[in-house]
Amino acid sequence: MKFRDLMKGWPVLRQFARGDSRALGDTAMSARSRSLAPRTKTADAVVKSICPYCAVGCGQEVHVRDGRILDIEGDPHSPISRGRLCPKGAATFQLVTGTQRVQQVLYRRPGGTEWEPIPLEEAMTQVAERVKRTRDATFEVTDAQGRWVNRTLGLAHLGGATLDNEENYLLKKLFSALGVVQVENQARI
Questions:
Q1: From its phi and psi, is residue 102 left (phi > 0), alpha (psi between -120 and 50) or beta?
Q2: Domains defined for the chain, CATH in brackets
């Protein structure tokens, strides 16, 4: 390639030659930039979702192809966020697809110093057994004055800020059925 052809292909020179000094037109484009397309363009489906980080409830669009997430962007039809996401919401793609994300249950035995992977079923069984054991050991049918209370003060539940009213309703029913009276959540929507 001759020096003259090389200089002609340089975007800065094209900008000045065409009077587009601020590079707002086609002069700043290269063959490479013309060939680029958003990865969302090849999506098979767009699934509506809600950002998992806080209680604002910003709308997200999850772009999927062949069962894999291509990208996650703000939902322009969301009345809450109108297509905008904060830096944490914009990083949801890395949260979901990041290679550093833990993909298994880790357990540290009592007195242990190392985490070990265990199957999800084993972890769920351990949680259920510990909840039952604690409930049975701390359940009160009556209080110190002889009043009927049917409760346990040995368990409590604090829901996260991303839980919606329906989820909080179901959690309240579950924990009330267990006799848990300390049930709170951080829901602000």
A1: beta
A2: 3-35 (no CATH), 39-97 (2.20.25.90), 105-185 (no CATH)
